[in-house]
Amino acid sequence: MTLGERIRKERKRVGLKQQELGQMLSVSQNTISMYETGKRTPDILSLKMMAEIFGISMDEFILSLPNSPASFPVQDISLTVGTPPTQFVIESQTLADFLERELMTTFRLLQYKNKLIIVGEAEKLLKAQDQENRNPDSAESNS
Length: 143
Hints:
Number of helices: 8
Strand content: 5-15%
CATH architecture of the domain at 3-93: Orthogonal Bundle
Order of helices and strands: HHHHHEEHHH
Low-confidence stretches: 67-93
Shape: elongated
Structural class: mainly alpha
C-alpha cells in the first residue's frame, strides 16, 4: 500500500470527503486528490495533522507502509517541528525519510541558480564533515 492509498483508506474510514479533509488541512480538494494518487507528497505537518484527524499515531500511519523508514537504521535523535500548539516530535525512525522528502520537495521548487547554490553549500558541508571525521578533536575545540 502506498502513502496515497493509505491516506485514501483512512479518509474514507473516518467518513470524510476530499474537500472536507482539505479544509481541515487548509489545502484544496485537488491537493488531497494529488496526495491520494501519489502525484504529490504531503509535508511533515500535514502528515501529522492527518494522523490526528484519522485518530492514529504517526507510527501506525507511516511506518506500516512498505519501504518505510521503520527498516532504516535508528539513530538516537529526534526533531521538534513547529511551535505550540502544533509542535510535535518526529522520532529518528521517520526523521531521515521526512527530511529527505522535504529537502527534495523544496529543491524542486527552486530556480536553477538557487539549486546551484544549494549544491555548492552541500559540497562545503560534506568537506567540513569529512574533515571532522578525520580529526574529531579539532572539531570539538572549534565548537
